[in-house]
Design brief:
The complex is a heterodimer of chains A (285) and B (286).
Chain A: E1 2-6, H1 14-27, E2 32-36, H2 44-48, E3 51-65, H3 75-79, E4 85-88, E5 91-94, H4 104-108, E6 114-129, E7 132-139, H5 147-154, E8 162-166, H6 173-179, E9 184-189, H7 193-209, E10 213-220, H8 226-234, E11 238-243, H9 246-254, H10 257-284
Parallel strand pairs in A: 1-8, 1-9, 2-7, 2-8, 9-10, 10-11
Antiparallel strand pairs in A: 3-6, 4-5, 6-7
Chain B: E1 3-8, H1 16-26, E2 30-34, H2 43-46, E3 49-64, H3 74-78, H4 100-104, E4 110-125, E5 128-135, H5 142-160, E6 164-168, H6 175-181, E7 186-191, H7 195-210, E8 214-219, H8 226-239, E9 242-246, H9 251-259, H10 263-266, H11 270-285
Parallel strand pairs in B: 1-6, 1-7, 2-5, 2-6, 7-8, 8-9
Antiparallel strand pairs in B: 3-4, 4-5
Classes of the chains: A alpha/beta (285), B alpha/beta (286).
């Protein structure tokens, strides 16, 4: 089972929840992996403390032009939808940061003057913290495109029964890439107008991706009841809520969020896992 | 010359938008731009009155004409984005608009159709003009939209003789953040004294540094962990970043969001006064 933990708004507690749920599952004796898909700012292992066993570079394909074979016909420039290959004084210049690896220029070149080469975009690390398996991506600084790296992260630990994805914030391409194909999506929000506004965007994304989902309200009591009212009116299950407390915030700051969650909110995690499995089953039926 | 001040954070939820909205209220002659197009929230604090709205042309999406498709399956093989499913229907959420399928379809059955990814707006607020956007559900191309908003905001600043554009950025270090930083003059990084905050600060700082801009750091909720706040201060002095302020944890920050107002308009509490001091420091440095 693949459980994606996401949120429209950043800083709502995705990583805390993903890490705590993963540790909780592993302690129940389930073969569990946590996969950190927030490759721009990977934080899950700050809370898990997994020992890293493998670290491999991840790549995307970009074109390389053989100037001797190129006749300057411009077919490559014409097909590129991203302006990633442009003709300068009759010769194509590749702009790697613009390239989306579609392969169009390589396929279209009549002289076979273009080959595809690997460009490093980041690393995928794997390891384990006790029984809990870990994998995470780390995008190289300055690389604009993260989905191919996220794709690699999602391939790790395929044998685990429960695979928990810590997703990036927002609702655009990196999030879609992370959430796509999950059995269940948990949207973590906070009870403020920002939380509600961004939750609505995330709900739209979940519906567009046809992934069954539910909401966890974090820092419950710190704002308004609007999030709960919205979920009721839209018939969205509130899977659990975690009350606001300064202790949680302080434990998180130290990096002790997971033990604190397991101590103080073990029942909430058990209830959450039960609700997720019920929701995922219902979707399958 | 028009200066662009970008507010970013690396980590999400550190308080970027609360700071940006307060800066908008404190600035006397600025244009405001919300470049967190993925989850734009600044409008919830600045209550903009829309003056004009335009569709954002986010590129193209493939459409397979059912009447022309012979079901040969070539497109499925060519598509690197796994966007063409059973029955040869294109998944618009997966299609990147590259057009390779259309180019190589032997039956000429695929059309690349224009695709509107969202809307962008020019608005008035009580604090000055604002440019912002609404990206459609699960849409991509946020970098392109960010560039468009910045360009428009700068044009408006030129026309109105305003010297400053205040930009609310997005979390992370990827495409929209790079589009936000490129060519900007000053970055304020809003971080928090947590293990994640410190980790993510390192990455966003290094990225911003590559763009050769002035960088300042302020720590939000500094009293949540004094030790970690010290580490951030050390990081700044080691790196030569301007450490401008520790903002205390203050319930008024959430209360201001609930009230839909910039913090400095809503409160005279310790966080609001701290944000005013940050603003003063930045005005001096700009």
């Amino acid at each position: 089972m693949v459980i994606a933990i996401a949120s429209g708004k950043g800083g709502t507690g995705k990583t805390t929840l993903a890490a705590s749920l993963a540790v909780w599952c592993a302690r129940q004796g389930r073969a569990t992996a946590i996969l950190d898909c927030d490759v721009e700012e990977p934080n899950a292992n700050l809370f898990i403390g997994a020992e890293i066993k493998t670290s491999e570079a991840a790549h995307m394909l970009i074109p390389k032009v053989d100037d001797d074979l190129c006749t300057g016909c411009g077919e490559c420039e014409a097909i590129c939808a991203y302006s990633a290959i442009v003709l300068i004084k009759g010769l194509p210049l590749v702009l790697p940061d613009m390239c989306h690896s579609c392969g169009g220029c390589y396929l279209v070149c009549p002289e076979k003057a273009i080959q595809e080469i690997e460009k490093r975009i980041g690393v995928v690390e794997t390891g384990a913290a006790g029984e809990l398996l870990y994998a995470g991506g780390r995008l190289d600084l300055g690389e604009p495109i993260s989905p191919p790296l996220i794709h690699e992260v999602k391939k790790q630990h395929p044998g685990a029964d429960v695979r928990i994805l810590d997703c990036p914030p927002g609702t655009s391409c990196p999030v879609v890439e992370s959430v796509r194909g999950s059995d269940f999506l948990v949207l973590v929000t906070e009870p403020t107008p920002f939380g509600l506004h961004d939750l609505k965007l995330a709900v739209g994304m979940a519906r567009a991706l046809c992934v069954p989902f539910g909401v966890v309200i974090n820092r419950d009591g710190a704002g308004t009841t609007d999030v709960r009212d919205y979920c009721d009116s839209e018939d969205i299950p509130v899977l659990t809520s975690i009350p606001y407390s300064r202790e949680v915030a302080e434990a998180y700051a130290r990096g002790d969020a997971v033990p604190h969650m397991l101590d103080a909110h073990g029942d909430a995690l058990a209830g959450l896992f039960a609700a997720i499995t019920r929701g995922a089953c219902r979707a399958e039926a | 010359m028009i200066k662009e001040l970008v507010i970013i954070s690396g980590k999400g939820g550190t308080g970027k938008t609360s700071v940006a909205a307060s800066f908008a209220a404190l600035a006397e002659n600025a244009v405001i731009a919300d470049c967190d197009v993925d989850a734009a929230d600044l409008h919830l604090l600045l209550s903009p009155r829309e003056k004009s709205s335009e569709p954002f042309d986010g590129g193209k999406k493939a459409y397979i004409h059912p009447g022309l498709c012979t079901g040969c399956g070539e497109c499925v093989i060519y598509c690197r984005f796994d966007a063409i499913g059973d029955y040869f229907v294109v998944d618009p959420l997966a299609c990147e608009g590259c057009g390779v399928c259309a180019r190589f379809c032997p039956a000429d059955a695929i059309e690349m159709r224009d695709h509107i990814s969202g809307d962008w707006f020019v608005s008035d607020t009580a604090y000055g003009p604002m440019v912002h956007a609404r990206l459609g559900i699960a849409e991509g191309n946020s970098g392109k939209l960010v560039s468009l908003i910045r360009k428009k905001a700068k044009e408006m600043a030129e026309e109105d003789k305003r010297g400053l554009v205040i930009i609310d950025g997005s979390p992370g270090i990827g495409c929209p953040v790079i589009a936000t930083l490129t060519g900007a003059h000053f970055a304020l990084i809003v971080t928090e004294p947590t293990v994640s905050g410190l980790h993510d600060l390192g990455r966003i700082y290094e990225l911003a540094r590559r763009f050769r801009m002035k960088i300042a750091v302020c720590v939000n909720k500094a009293d949540i962990n004094r030790e970690m706040s010290e580490k951030i201060r050390d990081f700044c002095s080691r790196e030569g970043a301007l450490f401008c302020e520790e903002l205390p944890y203050d319930d008024d920050v959430t209360a201001a969001i609930v009230a839909g107002k910039p913090l400095v308009e809503y409160s005279r509490g310790p966080a609001a006064l701290g944000v005013e001091r940050v603003w003063g420091r930045i005005l001096n440095e700009l």
